[in-house]
Amino acid sequence: MTAIASTPPARSTAPERRAPGALRSGIAAIGIELRSYVRTPDTVFFGFLFPVLMLGIFGVAFGGNGDIGELPDGSGGVNMAAYYLPGMVAAGALLTGMQTLAIDIAHEKSSGWLRRLGGTSLSPVSYFLGKAGLVLVTSAAQLVLLLAFAVVVLRVALPSDPALWSRFAWVYLLGLLTMTLLGIALSALPRSGKTATAVVIPIVLLLQFISGVYLQFSMLPEWLQNVAGVFPLKWLAQGMRSVFLPDHFAALEASGAWDLGLVALNLGVWLAVGLVLSLLTFRWQRKS
């Protein structure tokens, strides 16, 4: 008997196609989100340029009032642009994180875009990586523009101590992540895309007015300071003031100190709240 040699099946030389991973899809989603962002002028104005414009208005309108916060010997004062800069940095994180995502996701739900995405292979992880990347890139660009405008146009002196910039990094990143998660959670509140702006913007404006962004926090009534202390923007603005203002300005805070431990604690608590609410409320399609 002759042995019949069996030949193994030929392997295809074509490259094996694999579904893109969540990270790769998320990175691709960032580019899509950025292109969509720059094509919406109202979002760019009210989210990206608004803090820069407000800093310019406050710096010019109140610039003639002289320096504030001077010590008895006449030193240590800052002009109004320098005083408002920390609040505008905090407001920028609020607008690019919470406001932009809350309105954007609400519109995507209402238009059926999320329902269509839910029927594809795109995972929620990739979707939210795209949103988080959008917030990170736009907020970084906004921050650079805001600081450059403050220095070049309004003659604001930035801190020179590296320790202050290290403090700025953790406060800003923690605050930005908190605002991002709260924006995702807040997107569940509007009943439709048409009402998203009317629901979200008043909330964001109210938080800015009571949290020491547009008004000096120490001038607010004590009960209103206590209300603002419940929300994260007050703590983010306080952390920013500890970076950009001289140390003796801490006496104007409610406790007479910067309380950086409480800043981290409160932002961390709201980060956890935003994460839990996002997980509980996010759906590819709004429930009827």
TrEMBL record:
Q: Which organism is it from?
A: Leucobacter insecticola
Keyword Cell membrane in record? yes
Extract one GO molecular function annotation from the record. ABC-type transporter activity
What GO terms describe the biological role, i.e. biological process, of this protein? response to antibiotic
The cellular location(s) given in this protein's UniProt record come to: Cell membrane; Membrane
This protein is called Transport permease protein
Per UniProt, residues of the ABC transmembrane type-2 domain are 42-288
The annotated topology with respect to the bilayer is: Multi-pass membrane protein
Q: InterPro entries recorded for this chain?
A: ABC-2_transporter, ABC2_TM, ABC2_TM_bact-type, ABC_2_transport
Annotated keywords: Antibiotic resistance, Cell membrane, Membrane, Transmembrane, Transmembrane helix, Transport
Which coarse location class describes where this protein primarily resides? membrane
Instruction: List the transmembrane segments.
Output: 44-63, 83-106, 127-157, 169-189, 196-217, 260-282
Q: Which domain of life is it from?
A: Bacteria
Annotated GO CC locations? ATP-binding cassette (ABC) transporter complex
Member of which family? Belongs to the ABC-2 integral membrane protein family.
